[in-house]
């Protein structure tokens, strides 16, 4: 199950579970669309893979399967 990480690893932008701007790679590295499509050029800096739009978990399932609260963005 996807972690649904809460922020962009590059700029720290908030990416709530319902965000259409979240992009992930095969290892669930998470970036916002402006970072993934802009400076990162569509390539994950951690693994070299491509990005895809992160799926949105239906609201009625978030209580049972909540999004991660562990931030990975810049300190």
TrEMBL record:
InterPro entries: DUF1272. Pfam families: DUF1272 (PF06906). This is DUF1272 domain-containing protein. It comes from Allosphingosinicella ginsenosidimutans.
């Amino acid at each position: 199950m996807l972690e649904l990480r809460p922020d962009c690893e590059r700029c720290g932008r908030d990416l709530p579970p319902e965000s259409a701007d979240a992009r992930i790679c095969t290892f669930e590295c998470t970036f916002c669309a402006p970072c993934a499509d802009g400076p990162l050029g569509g390539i994950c800096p951690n693994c070299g893979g491509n990005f895809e739009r992160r799926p949105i978990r239906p609201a009625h399932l978030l209580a049972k399967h909540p999004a991660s609260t562990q931030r990975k963005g810049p300190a």
